[in-house]
Amino acid sequence: MPRVFSGIQPTGNPHIGNYFGAMKNYVRLGDTYGKNSIYCVVDLHAITNPAAYDPAALAERTLEMAVANFAAGLDPERVIFFVQSQVPEHQELSWVFTALTPVGELERMTQYKDKAAHLESVPAGLLMYPVLMAADILLYKADTVPVGEDQTQHIELTREIARKFNHTYGETFPEPQAVYAKDALRIPGVDGQGKMSKSKGEGSTIGILEPLDSIWQKLRVAPTDPARVRRSDPGDPEKCLIGDYHKLFSDLPTIEVAFTGCRTAGIGCVDCKKMLMEGIRRELTPLQERAAELRADPDWVRDALAQGAQEAREIARPVMEEVREKVGFLRL
Ligand code: TRP
Question: Among candidates 20, 42, 36, which has minimal Cα distance to 78?
Fold first, then answer.
């Protein structure tokens, strides 16, 4: 049975790029692999980037990320879902891997270079980030890692670390493969300034837990195909972010009406946006209702995470025992 692992950054309110690119994939893989699909909110990673980390907000964002994933359909009875800092074996294995990983490899990671470029003083943890990520995955001997394409280099390093460990200490870890969500077609930001990204601020994102009227305010002013200067100008929905969103949220008949209407100038952009809003409402309303229920029951969320951490530790502990023994630590 393959084992799936993925880590989720505790950024608070996830956006529709996270939802279609990752969260729906977790739910789908969970349906297939059950308790062999393991998901974790990576709060240990979150503290490595001083530009994005606020200690006063971390616990709240961690809980919000759990709520969002539960609301999106991840069932803690069926999968393993927990918070990284609750399972100390992640850090323990990470240290062993640190001793195996050349600094030069870490300095070549493009995400590290991008983040470090904005910092006056670079924390060592930022450099070690991919080592901790390798420990996350290999602690569960996971072989399948659903991630965004921006993580490809980190997964490749994880494979190298697994190889190096196996070579040094004997066959222990699988070499995991990244799997990409098919919907992870670069989802454009609603501001029309390239990819949807939290790091560009709320202006580019549509949060899955964002109130629908706030989403509408963003859609209303979103840029469309610049060829449609006047209502009577035909447009190309393939060159329009609203067209891209229709493909995610609308059913085929609606897409047909909207796209034909755009190409023939039969409908205006506001009509097209209203049609899109219907699809968004259909997809996000049940999710937002579940999130509201979960927020009203914080004990349920905490219990689910505590249970998840326990299940994770049951897998992690014997693996860590094996590692301790192979590395040669004293046993008492
Ligand atoms: N680095 C990943 C990201 O930014 C998050 C992550 C941490 C992760 N540990 C992981 C992803 C382990 C997959 C497996 O998205």
Answer: 36
Each residue's pLDDT tens digit, 145-160: 999 888 999 999 999 9
What 8-state DSSP symbol labels residue 124?
H
Tell me if domain 4-187+298-327 and domain 211-291 are identical in fold: no
State whether CATH 1.10.240.10 applies to domain 211-291: yes
169-213 pLDDT tens trace: 999 999 999 998 766 567 899 999 988 988 777 889 999 999 999
Q: How many CB atoms lie within 10 A of CB 71?
A: 22
Out of 24, 35, 164, 198, the active site residue is 198
Round to the nearest angstrom and report the end-to-end CA distance of the chain.
34
Proportion of the chain above pLDDT 70, given as a percent: 99
C-alpha 66 chain-centroid distance: 12
What rounded mean pLDDT belongs to the chain?
A: 95
> pLDDT per residue over 222-246, tens digit each?
999 999 999 999 999 999 999 999 9
As a whole number of angstroms, the distance between CA 262 and CA 285 comes to 27
CATH architecture of 4-187+298-327: 3-Layer(aba) Sandwich (3.40)
Taking the C-alpha atoms of residue 29 and residue 44, their distance in angstroms, rounded to an integer, is 24
SS3 state at 146: strand
Alpha helices in the chain (DSSP H): 16-18, 24-33, 43-46, 55-71, 89-98, 103-107, 110-117, 124-138, 152-169, 212-220, 241-249, 252-263, 269-295, 298-327
- Is 113 catalytic? The answer is no
Domain segments of the chain as ranges = 4-187+298-327, 211-291
Q: From the CB of 7, is ligand 1 less than 6 Å away?
A: yes
Regarding the beta carbon of 15 and ligand 1, being less than 6 Å apart is answered no
Active site residue 115: yes
User: What are the Cα distances from residue 158, in Å, to 10, 108, 163, 169, 275?
Assistant: 22, 14, 9, 16, 44
Query: Is the pTM of the predicted complex or chain greater than 0.70?
Result: yes
Check residue 13 and give its pLDDT.
Answer: 85
pLDDT, tens digit, for every residue of 11-28? Answer: 878 999 999 989 999 999
